Task: structure prediction
Amino acid sequence: MTIKKYQNILNGSGVDSPHSFESKNPATGETLGLVPHSTAEQVAQAVASARAAQPAWAARPDDERKSMVARVADMISENAQDLARWVTREQGKPLGGVGAGEIPGALFEIAACEAWTRVPAGLELPIEVVFEDDTRRDELHRTPYGVVAAIAPWNWPLMIAIWQIIPAIRAGNTVVLKPSEYTSIGTLELARVISAVLPPGVLNTVTGLGAVGSALVENPDVDKIMFTGSTATGIKIAAAAARNLTPSTLELGGNDPAIVLPDADPHAIAMGLFWGAFINMGQTCACAKRVYVHESLHDALVAELKVLVEAMPMGNGMEPSIAMGPIQNAMQFEKVVALVDSARAAGATIVTGGQAPGTAGYFYPLTLVTDIQDGADLVDEEQFGPALPIIKYRDIDLAVASANRLGAGLGASVWSADTGHAMAVAKRIQAGTVWINQHGAVHPMVPFGGVKGSGWGVEFGVDGLKSVTQTRVISLKK
Ligand code: NAD
Result:
């Protein structure tokens, strides 16, 4: 049987590379297809294609760009089933659905792609008059940077690519996208669908390992970098960007705390907290990754979560009624195994889960860990997987100090029946977003980004659109 070879998009056409690598299904180990390994020359060609297309794209009337982006949203919607199947087969999350009460899986990811395209299609960045008196008028105009390099991770491979591509294009930039090597085919399929309604050169792709991303960000003709991935890679990208003074938006790792106040109702919050921690098998930047629960509620909350955890069917997400898929890759699987094993060895209680079934695929059960403290690796490191440490606290000041003690500052949540009380605690937490009685609830109109080691800048909404533009002041003497 021949294995299908997928192509990159260069100036509107499909291109092969001399070498390729396999993309595999994490649930079965099956080879899904061959991904081209872009050469250094192809990376340079992709940037040159984006550069050549950019002036004409930026010169189009804004309404034309808006309607083309809206057409992109239509194309995503028309191809939703096929794209969702790619996400399930290549990334692992189950197909799921999009309605209330549905499992948030691959169809949810594609619905998010559509939403995060439709919303920027309707946004404007009008000229602002920042000062005016009898002597002068000062206007702030926003212009595209030019060529945007977008580098995406494997956890929400299509949605995060959309978060990067669409605002950039909407604002008049052109893009070179590099998907993760673990999830390239689905993203290439998305790029193919999108490119059909965009002029050639507006969206180009390159694929391969980190070295391909590195060649892209080091290219001096890149005007802006949009990177989502680990903090370790973010640091390398920031160093590369510094050499060319390339502005960068960095969306990096998180280790989000969830603080449950003593007045919360464990039954009422359990489902929200469950999905806040375990959506996409915990492989989400802004998942709740450590829960601090007041000692008075600890046992009740653990019991509620245990019921939910044990009720979720896990398996190949292409099968109906599956709620949880595999971990996406061997490296991540081994990390979760090591973190849980080290917690167990140090005396923590594994309430449920904690043992891989040993079947094909990177399956690991949803795992709750108690009798664990700050300083344990499972608490202090980003597990990025289905193992949740639950830590008792007595004094809210200490819980807040725990929440703030790590280098990460992406998201956080506070759970309480008293919104005023929750708000007072939320204001003390160092994070880009603090949710109250929900976790990870991103929205296309609401700016999202990290503080401290979780990154630079924000995406989404008007602020996200501004982040792919530069300012030009036009100052008129009267
Ligand atoms: P990763 O850093 O390993 O890889 C991300 C991308 O960077 C891949 O496309 C990879 O090929 C590329 N890359 C690797 N080395 C590079 C280099 N030197 N130069 C340029 N590109 C390079 O991250 P990952 O494992 O794919 O993603 C998981 C991480 O991403 C987690 O830490 C997670 O928290 C984080 N994440 C953050 C957000 C956010 O919005 N803050 C969202 C999703 C994921």
Remarks:
- Residues 151-155, 160, 178, 180-181, 209-210, 213-214, 217, 228-230, 233, 236-237, 251-254, 285, 382, 384, 410, 450, 454-455 surround nicotinamide-adenine-dinucleotide (CB under 6 Å).
